[in-house]
Protein 1
Amino acid sequence: MTMSLSRQPGAEDIARAIWLGAARQTFVAREREACCVCGKYRWLTQAHHLVPLTMQYDAGLAVPIQDYAWLCPTHHVAIHLLIANVVAAYERRITPSALQMLGESEPSEIAALFKLVDAFTALYYAAAPGAA
């Protein structure tokens, strides 16, 4: 007998997928730019929503916030890790140790990442119903 650990999507999973799909379809990016953190890789940058779409849905926003910044793949991953740390720290009311995660980043890159986190924090906690 084979057991499957996967589960069937429920109504909430379907609603989330629909909301995220609609948010992505309505997103219109301007011309691609270099990474706003390191200033490199214009050809490779990705549009990063200042408040990630999944967090917007989880916070109950009806209309997505489409503010974004261009990030290279490395800094895109880094900002998502920083955001996760900021949210976790806010919920636990402690200071995040996010600098350890950044490893050997240049101080100017760290400052730029934290500016993005500040923008995220302002948008997320201002727009999310009951988030504060």
Protein 2
Amino acid sequence: MILQMEFFFVFFLIFFIIFLLACCIPIIMCVWVYGDAKKRGMDEAIWLIIVLFTGILGLIIYLIVRDPLLPEFGGTPAAVSTPTYPTQTSVQPQYGTQQQKASNPIFCPTCGAKMESTAKFCNHCGQNLEHG
């Protein structure tokens, strides 16, 4: 009889702990997701409902798709990328010697920039020097 009571008590204790965990873990997950979604500027009510009805699967989905933290909650502001434009580079033909190129400088008829006599385009304004 005493053995049966001990078995019943141990069984009841284990069952109670499992029941407590089964009730507390979803509540803890929902509270955490609600607070975290609020810090990230997401719709916290929607995520609360998703995690409440789907459990751990909803938590995993939330962790995958969540947005970065808002700056007022310690997140870094999104980096503003400034567009970079290519600079004008001078691509010169590789034939002839350096002395030949330097000995006969020419000037662009459009902007007056000085360049080598073998240049096909003006390095400054892009004017075609072969036909104009």
Protein 3
Amino acid sequence: MNRKFPTVDADGHLEEVHVNWKERLPQRYQAMAPERRPAGNGQSRLFIEGKAWPKPSGPGLGVGGPYSRPHPRREGMQDPKARLVDMDSEGVDVAVLFGGSFAGTIPALEDAALAIELARARNTWVAEYCAQNPSRLKGTAVLPQQDIPASVTELRRAVTRSRPLPPWAPGLPSPPCESRSRGSAPLGSSGERLLSLVTGPMVDRLARAAEKPD
């Protein structure tokens, strides 16, 4: 394909609910693993902490609207090989990948310890997905925002691995729970230093590309 510049899908999405999260969690959390269950309205729904996510109806965090029809899914949301086929057919060089309802739910869980383990397991799965073609598949890590020190630890693990995952922090307020006493300040200087490991080189590459003559 003869193009002057690469094409980036800056808002790709993954579907994580098909993963067997029980086998990816420490034994003490396996009974709390997310799972799909019938919701009583002809739809299946993700259950975490004994609650349906998104909420089936009514006001409040996580409401996903009426589910009168299935939401369209692409095989590539679960299978990186299928995504690469779609990307080739659409002329997309690089895809930046965010999570689905599962990843967006993690920062809103009431159990901070469960959120920490789920974030770690989910980010590991995303790294495995992107390993199919790291130069084209760019995943993002979700952070357990209920516990700021734990978020910094997971951020450090995500961005310093051999194939770094920059963080994705959904705009969800952390629920009131005991874990908030562990630290409620922003990620702060530690987070900024870690982010620079990923964003710094990225900005440098973009700047160099912009300086190249046509």
Protein 4
Amino acid sequence: MLKVVTEDPSAARPPILELRSIGKVYRMGEIEVHALRSVDFSVRAGELVAIMGASGSGKSTMLNLIGTLDRPTEGRVLFAGEDVFARPDAEQTAGGTDEAAGSSGDGLAQGHRANDVRRVAVPVDGARSKHR
């Protein structure tokens, strides 16, 4: 079972990250593996979060969806209220919103290596201005 533990210093702040009814199914021929089933999760600015669970509970799958390295089979991933997989622009593809989410990643899913300092500095500056 996947367990999400949060410590919320200010419940009045709007969520900066939300997963709504997220599901992820991996298909291998006729076999379906349900890695996540109807997960709801949110993180507010300044909140500390730990994602814990046994092996195979969906932790890595959830983090891959949050980091847009993979797409959910069902549900929505929202960053600052925007569905990151519903955008019509070129950055809609998996791996396209890592700069906005503050992920430095390893660049493998994107097929290139970006400047890690820029990848971290841009979202920190943006988060400061958006959530004041």
